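Changelog-linked ticket: 3-hydroxybutanoyl-coenzyme A example.
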Amino acid sequence: MAIQRVGIVGGGQMGGGVAEVTARSGLATVVREVSPEAAERSRSGIERSLGRALDRGKIDEATHQAILDNLTFTTELSDLSDCDLVVEAVIESFDLKAEIFAELDAIVTSPDAILATNTSSIPIIDIAMATDRPDHVVGLHFFNPAPVMALVEVIPSVRTDPSVTEQVTAFATDVLGKTVVAAKDRAGFVVNMLLVPYLLGAMRMFEDGHATAEDIDTGMTLGAGHPMGPLTLSDLIGLDTMLLVGETLQAEYGDPAYAPPALLRRMVAGGHLGRKTGRGFYDYS
Ligand code: 3HC
């Protein structure tokens, strides 16, 4: 089965980015959001990103229009019924994801369709078992910003059919142009298992008054050649996501390096979620 029509559940920062990737790859892409307002926000975010690419001469007018034509937005999950691949990219809530996968299981008609989750921390098997087709459920983990970051992690669960893993790997590589790394269904997969303790460590240094946010970030950009410092990157990822991923890793491995610092908890409680709310370790207002 060729993947021609892709559904994205959740058109936020990650889902919108993934939708841009699939639409740019020439695939009919339908984005489902919870309300007309959220769908409109998702559409305008993708249009802004494509507009930048057009202004910078990365794509021409005809390509820009063709990509826009590949995209539709809906509030109805049933509009994803004829998709060959669905990528779920809602918030990191197991209950919400389980509910969505149970609904997708009932809605998506083709038995060959692949149901993928972009979760960064919830076990793929737990999500898969919310459906009657766990053999067709797989983890497909993109990185933020999805249109720019070259990597995708493919994570089969113990129930994923090996042919599904192969198909989704070939799709991410050949159609989306990403590099794939394979990971086991363990919290953090490959990248977050290494990245998250580093980012949480930077927060602890800041919390302890070890150095200013600016100096921690400058240290790692200029001293270690990273494109962004750890506090800037945490703001980009979203501090609510950082908290949830840290908690999941801590629960799975019990290693204190994964324990979210108190400051992170307080910032999330106070609505300082990073770039998306205009305030995190830095002020974006
Ligand atoms: N959407 C689409 N395109 C974007 C974008 C976005 N949100 N942000 C930047 N870009 C594009 C720009 O248009 C530009 O494109 P061009 O080169 O074709 O003109 C290109 O990216 C470079 O952008 P800028 O020149 O504005 O800025 P930088 O050179 O500083 O690059 C960056 C920005 C790519 C975000 C770079 O700083 C970077 O790689 N940062 C690290 C990001 C990272 O580590 N992400 C992984 C987070 S972990 C994760 O997502 C996993 C999750 O589970 C927690």
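Closing comment: Example verified and attached. The first strand starts at residue 5 and ends at 9. The mean pLDDT is 97.
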